[in-house]
C-alpha cells in the first residue's frame, strides 16, 4: 500500500517526473512589435492612441472571427483587417492591397477603392461599439450590436485585426468578453494552437 501511495505521489504530486505543467494560452491584444512609430498602446494592449496603426498579435486563422472596438474619443480612426505588409505609419489605411478598413467617415476602403459605406445616419460616435466579423472572404460591420449590412471583400492572404488613429482619436479593442454577443457562427479570435 505504501509503495502504491509513493508511486502516486511520484507521478502526480509536486515535482514528479510525470507532471507536465499546462501552458497558458497567450492573450489576443494589440502587438507592440507591429505598430507605427508614433503609436501609444496602453491598458494591457487594449487601447491605442497617438498617430498610426497597430496589428493584433494573432492572425485570423479560424473560419469565422469576431472582434470589437469602442470609440473612446473621436478623431481620425480606422478598423478592419490587414496583412503584416501594411504600412502602420500611413493614415488612413485602405490605400493598398494590404488593408481593408472602415474609416471614421463611414467608408470602407481597400486598394484605394471605396468598397462600401455605412448608412449616413449610422456613423460611429464616441462611446459606440463597432463589431467586425471576418470569414476569410467578407468583412461585415456591426454598430452597437446591430448588423449594418455593409459587406466588403478583396483582401487576400493571412490577415490580422488592425486599428489606426490620428487627430486625438482613442480606441479600445475587445478581442474577448464582448460588449455584444458575437453573431451566430462567429467567435473570438483563437491562437493557432487553440484551433486544433
TrEMBL record:
InterPro entries: B30.2/SPRY, B30.2/SPRY_sf, ConA-like_dom_sf, SPRY_dom, SPRYD7. SMART domains: SPRY. It comes from Etheostoma spectabile. Residues 1-184 form the B30.2/SPRY domain. Gene3D superfamilies: 2.60.120.920. Signal peptide: none annotated. This is SPRY domain-containing protein 7. PROSITE patterns: B302_SPRY. Pfam families: SPRY.
Amino acid at each position: 500500500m505504501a509503495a502504491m501511495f509513493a508511486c502516486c505521489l511520484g507521478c502526480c504530486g509536486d515535482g514528479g517526473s510525470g507532471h507536465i505543467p499546462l501552458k497558458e494560452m497567450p492573450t489576443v491584444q494589440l502587438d507592440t512589435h507591429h505598430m507605427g512609430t508614433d503609436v501609444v498602446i496602453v491598458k494591457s494592449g487594449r487601447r491605442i492612441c497617438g498617430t498610426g496603426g497597430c496589428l493584433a498579435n494573432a492572425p485570423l486563422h479560424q473560419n469565422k472571427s469576431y472582434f470589437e472596438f469602442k470609440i473612446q474619443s473621436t478623431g481620425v480612426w480606422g478598423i478592419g483587417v490587414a496583412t503584416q505588409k501594411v504600412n502602420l505609419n500611413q493614415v488612413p489605411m485602405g490605400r493598398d492591397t494590404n488593408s481593408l478598413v472602415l474609416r471614421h467617415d463611414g467608408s470602407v476602403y481597400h486598394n484605394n477603392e471605396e468598397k462600401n459605406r455605412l448608412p449616413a445616419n449610422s456613423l460611429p460616435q464616441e462611446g459606440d461599439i463597432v463589431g467586425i466579423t471576418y470569414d476569410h472572404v467578407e468583412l461585415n460591420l456591426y454598430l452597437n450590436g446591430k448588423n449594418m449590412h455593409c459587406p466588403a471583400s478583396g483582401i487576400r492572404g493571412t490577415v490580422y485585426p488592425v486599428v489606426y488613429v490620428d487627430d486625438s482619436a482613442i480606441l479600445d479593442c475587445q478581442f474577448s468578453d464582448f460588449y455584444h454577443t458575437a453573431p451566430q457562427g462567429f467567435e473570438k479570435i483563437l491562437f493557432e494552437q487553440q484551433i486544433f
